[in-house]
Amino acid sequence: MGILVVGSIALDRVETPFGSREEVLGGSCPYFVVVASLYAPVYMVSVVGTDFPQAHLDFFRSRKIDLRGLQVVPGKTLRWAGRYGHDLADAETLATELNVLGDFHPIIPDDFRHVPYVFLANIDPDLQIEILSQMQAPRLVVLDSMNYWMIHKRDSLQKAISRVHVVLLNESEVRLFSGESNIIAGARAILSLGPKALVIKRGEHGAMLLISQGQGIDLFMVPAFPVENVVDPTGAGDTFAAGFMGYLAKTGDLSMASLRRAVVHGTLVASFTVQDFSIDRLRPLTLADIEACYSTFRWMTHFEPLSDLEVNRLSRPIWA
Q: Alpha carbon of 169 to those of 32, 166, 198, 240, 248: distances in Å?
């Protein structure tokens, strides 16, 4: 089953304690598509300027990513520059030049509108709503966002969140949007808006999956996969989304057990991303590499088999 992604494409300047890179491929879409295409066909909707290198387009095509939704318009591609300190927890944004992204309005090609899995990457929530209005009953819609939209376009973001199945945020974003200092209380407030599940990305501490269950919440936590050589965390959240959605699209299974395994896939893919600048560590990555890492991770974290009753509970679909 295919995955539609709508988001940004950028040319980045990144500085970390381990080096720097100029004009490297960045933005949410490249990180997402290079991983998601290992699991399922990918349809990309974004915008670049006429300065965007042909070599990057050739790479996308080599991964069989459908580019008919990619607009190439006069002007410059989005530029972002950031610097990380030694803890690599957060980037200090040095410059952002929206360029052609500033006037971007996504146009979903007719035959993309029936794609069953949709990822709304971190863009203006008004654009996310525009996209949803063009789609025909997708089976799974996942939304990502950031602090900027929570402050400047809260009402639009709340409307967008109310129309999707799964929301991906980090801990600080959950607290900011919900107004709750406690992360579980914040998750409950976000789930009350309508999503079936919330995934909280916790960086080096792993991830949490919270699924709405009537008046309660089912909670699943997974640690991060230990990585000795962390170079550049840029894009880790987007590749987390790609592993998460890619697994669900590949299996077609939306049960609780499948969502838990999808969180693990997202976590493992993110651990590859941080090992080099831009998408360089992801270029040679294969699904077999991810599956081998999954087996190692299962051995590292397994401690007790489940009962038949627990297995049955996990196998039930979360939604139709």
A: 16, 10, 8, 11, 18
Of 99, 56, 59, the C-alpha closest to 75 is: 99
Task: Inform me whether the pLDDT recorded for 271 exceeds 90.
Answer: yes
303 pLDDT more than 90? no
- Domain assignment present for 8: yes
Please state, in angstroms and rounded to a whole number, the distance separating the CA atoms of residues 27 and 199: 21
Burial of 309 (0-12, 13-18, 19+ CB in 10 A): exposed
Helix, strand, coil tally for the chain in percent (to 5)? 40, 25, 35
CATH of the domain at 224: 3.40.1190.20
Q: How far is residue 113's CA from residue 170's CA, in Å, rounded to a whole number?
A: 29
Percent of the chain residues topping a pLDDT of 90: 88
- Domain boundaries, position 262: 3-315
Taking residues 83-93, what's their average pLDDT?
A: 86
Number of domains in the chain: 1
Residue 257 contacts residue 53 (beta carbons within 8 Å): no
pTM over the 0.70 mark: yes
Smallest CA-to-CA distance from 3 within 59, 55, 69 is with 69
Residues of 48-85 as b/e, b for ≥16 C-beta within 10 angstroms? Answer: bbeebeeebeebbeeeebbbebbeeeeebbbbbbbebe
Query: Residue 49 falls within a domain, yes or no?
Result: yes
How many whole angstroms separate alpha carbon 184 and alpha carbon 171?
10
Domain annotation covers residue 320:
no
Any idea which residue has 């992360």 for tokens?
A: 183
| DSSP letter (8 states) at residue 217 | E
How far is it, in rounded angstroms, from Cα 279 to Cα 92? 20
